[in-house]
Amino acid sequence: MSDTGTGQDPTGPSGPARPAPGGPPRWVLWAALVALLTVNGAASLSSLPTVVGVVFGLLALGVGALLVRDHLRRRNRVWT
Questions:
Q1: How far is Cα 3 from Cα 24, in angstroms, rounded to an integer?
Q2: 35-69 exposure pattern, b = at least 16 Cβ within 10 A, e = fewer
Q3: What residues contact residue 2 under an 8 Å CB cut-off, 6+ apart?
Q4: Within the chain, which residues score under 70 in pLDDT?
Q5: 70 phi and psi, to 5 degrees?
Q6: In whole angstroms, what is the distance from residue 64 CA to residue 30 CA?
Q7: In the prediction, which pLDDT does 1 show?
Q8: Model pTM?
Q9: φ, ψ for residue 10 (rounded to 5)?
């Protein structure tokens, strides 16, 4: 049993916290982030127009923001 300083089990009585509803699974976000970063790097090194690299970079930033949101939601569900 983990101690969080409050004397309560962070997993709660029903086991580990489940992901918050309303978002894609975490593995999908990680796969999308890796794919977008790869395409962004390839677009930046190739002779494609700059706007292509910028679009994929912005999409990667968006997916990264979703991963941060998912992390914060999971952390808040475990510790509250």
A1: 30
A2: ebbebbeebeeeeeeeeebeebbebbeebeebbee
A3: 9, 10, 11
A4: 1-22, 78-80
A5: -65, -40
A6: 8
A7: 47
A8: 0.67
A9: -65, -20
